[in-house]
Amino acid sequence: MSRYRYLFSQLVRRELRRKYKGSAFGVLWYLVNPVVLMAAYWFMFGVVLTPPRAIPDFPVYLMVGILVWTFFQQSLLSAAPSLIDQSGLVRKARFPREAIPAATVTVQLVIFTAVLAILLPIAVAIRGTLTPALLLLPVLMALLFCFVLGCSVIAAILHAYFRDVEPILTAALLPWFFVTPIFLDLNTIPFVEHHAWAGTVLNWVNPIAPFVNGFRSVMYSGTAPWGEILYALAAAAVALVIGKTVFDRMQGELAVVL
Q1: Looking at 14-18, 60-64, 188-192, which range is the least confident one?
Q2: Which percentage of the chain shows pLDDT scores above 90?
Q3: Among the listed residues 34, 42, 40, the one whose alpha carbon sits nearest the alpha carbon of residue 63
């Protein structure tokens, strides 16, 4: 794969330039849009609506959850049509086709890292979470990237064959967003408090929830999320293996279906 390193870097650069080519701010829009979105959520759920009293410094709590979710959501939605968008390259050149959705996820990782660099010092200053647990942040980022990469590769190859995948994803991600612990600590919901199994389902069956909780533990609480890290490690490994397997089996006719 090292011989394709230059090609991959060019795919990432091309993806960065493609969406906002010719605009005044160029690639800076990739940073502006998520920051504006996070500010809008903070204003609505942290100012206009009464924030949960059980969650101190709620804007920080909210921002960390939105940051992780946005990376997950945007990576899937960007990767799904990526093979179709690059169909000319797929037909003309021989290279690992999974590099195309991987490049879109890498672009989202760059954005994620840039926004994280803004949010982290704010969270540390407000919450006083300058603890050794912060050293686990790169580990969580790497595991989140691997998990999202595996999911995105699957979304890309399936959408190349079945063009309904992207709109299905768009529709599915909306309710998924609201059952992920973004706005609330799910364990504080009355139903969950009275039914322990419900908390387990909502926090552990939902594969993105442990990632949200893990980042929140480090940045918001200043604690080491060992359970979430073990879950993330398993989820990342499973996603990569399934993604690679599905992609390898389906890519044989890729040049034809595109």
Answers
A1: 188-192
A2: 56
A3: 42
Cα→Cα distances 185→92, 128, 180, 193, 198, Å: 50, 20, 9, 11, 13
Give the contacts of 30 (CB within 8 A, at least 6 positions apart): 16, 19, 20, 107, 110, 111, 114
Length of the chain counted residue by residue: 258
What confidence score (pLDDT) does residue 141 get? Answer: 98
User: In whole angstroms, what is the distance from residue 28 CA to residue 177 CA?
Assistant: 26
239 phi/psi in degrees, rounded to 5: -65, -40
Task: Please answer whether residues 76 and 155 qualify as being in contact, where contact means their C-beta atoms are separated by less than 8 angstroms.
Answer: yes
Indicate the pLDDT class of residue 15, thresholds 50, 70 and 90.
confident
Which residue type occupies 115? V
Q: Give the list of residues 6+ apart from residue 188 with CB closer than 8 angstroms, or none.
A: 52, 54
Tell me how far apart the alpha carbons of residues 160 and 82 are, in angstroms, rounded to a whole number: 9
3-state helix, strand, coil in the chain (%, to 5): 80, 0, 20
- Residue 252, CB half-sphere, CA atoms under 13 Å: how many? 4
215's CB contacts (< 8 A; 6+ apart) are: 64, 67, 68, 137, 140, 144
Query: Which run of H or of E encompasses 215?
Result: helix 209-216
Q: What share of the chain in percent tops pLDDT 70?
A: 85
Structure tokens at 46: 């942290």
